[in-house]
Design a protein that fits this description.
GMP Synthetase, Chain A, domain 3; transmembrane helix; 3 strands; zinc ion transmembrane transporter activity; Cation_efflux_TM; ion transport; Alpha-lytic protease prodomain-like; about 70% helix; about 300 residues; three-stranded mixed β-sheet
Length: about 300
């Protein structure tokens, strides 16, 4: 219960920061779209597209945090709605993939005949964007260490922060040299910067949704360690998965030797899981050898 309460209070702290980041992003998005369309700057439009995913992504992250907290007391949802955060992170990744793909495609098209882009409006807009993204970046940085959901929003803001720097460089080059290729080149650079980070985010979200064991846990070694406990003859049906960021769960069946005290075996197993593997929420079933055969009869 203490762990759940800590997660709830942490989520509560994130809500205010998400609202602030959402307000900043939505305000600048309107400005960037107008200037990007007016000047015809692909670098600025690509940054506006990233800002759109920021706004949508942060909105999804905010909705997920609120939803997870709201449904915590529903008895029929035994794991609450914590997975909403993971779904939001995956949605953010899909959005970022789509935007990066569009920007790369459009930039390649423009290399054949790059249009003339006025530098000064692009530079001024980039400076404003850089400031706003820096504030949003600082707002979300701490939460990104605790929540995959917040990390998705944080990575989008980070990509836009880099994007704003790129747009600023593009505008300065255009303003000082008139080189038309600066705009599509910077747009490609922004797209390539975003893709590997987006892949990492999607991979982490999918690992949770498919209920894979956390990467830090070697399940094979965990089974060996459980079997080596005094009084245990076999460990089977061992499962380790992540409910949401910072909430890892385990379950295991332990076959005990005749004459062993089940209560003592249970205490030793829970201590091993908590101290050696940082799995404090574990359901351990201690059973005699006769009961083990029933587990093997299952087809999954």
């Amino acid at each position: 219960m203490g762990h759940g309460h800590g997660h709830a209070s942490a989520s509560g702290q994130h809500v205010g920061r998400l609202w602030a980041a959402l307000g900043l992003g939505a305000t600048f998005l309107a400005v960037e779209v107008v200037v990007g369309v007016t000047t015809g700057s692909l670098a600025l439009i690509s940054d506006a597209a990233h800002m759109l995913t920021d706004v949508v992504g942060i909105g999804l992250a905010l909705a997920a945090v609120i939803l997870a907290a709201k449904n915590r007391t529903d008895q029929n949802r035994t794991f609450g709605m914590y997975r909403a955060e993971v779904l939001a992170a995956l949605a953010n990744a899909v959005l970022l993939f789509a935007v990066a793909g569009y920007v790369l495609y459009e930039a390649i098209e423009r290399f054949t005949a790059p249009p003339e882009v006025p530098g000064l409006p692009v530079v001024l807009t980039a400076i404003v964007g850089l400031t706003i993204n820096a504030v949003a970046f600082l707002l979300l940085r701490e939460g990104a260490k605790e929540s995959l959901n917040l990390r998705g929003a944080y990575l989008e803001v980070l990509s836009d922060l880099v994007g704003s720097v790129g747009v600023l460089i593009s505008g300065l080059i255009t303003l000082t040299t008139g080189w038309r290729y600066a705009d599509p080149v910077i747009a490609v650079a922004i797209g390539l910067f975003v893709l590997p980070r987006t892949y990492g985010l999607a991979r982490r979200a999918l690992r949770i949704l498919f209920q894979h064991a956390p990467e830090r846990v070697d399940v094979r070694q965990l089974c060996v360690d459980l079997t080596a406990l005094d009084g245990v003859t076999e460990a089977h049906d061992v499962h380790v998965w992540t409910l949401t960021s910072g909430m890892e769960v385990a379950s295991a069946h332990l076959t005990v030797a005749p004459g062993s005290e089940p209560g003592d075996v249970l205490v030793r197993a829970q201590k091993l899981l908590a101290e050696d593997y940082r799995l404090e929420h574990a359901t351990v079933q201690v059973e005699p050898r006769e009961a083990t055969s029933k587990c093997r009869d299952l087809s999954w």
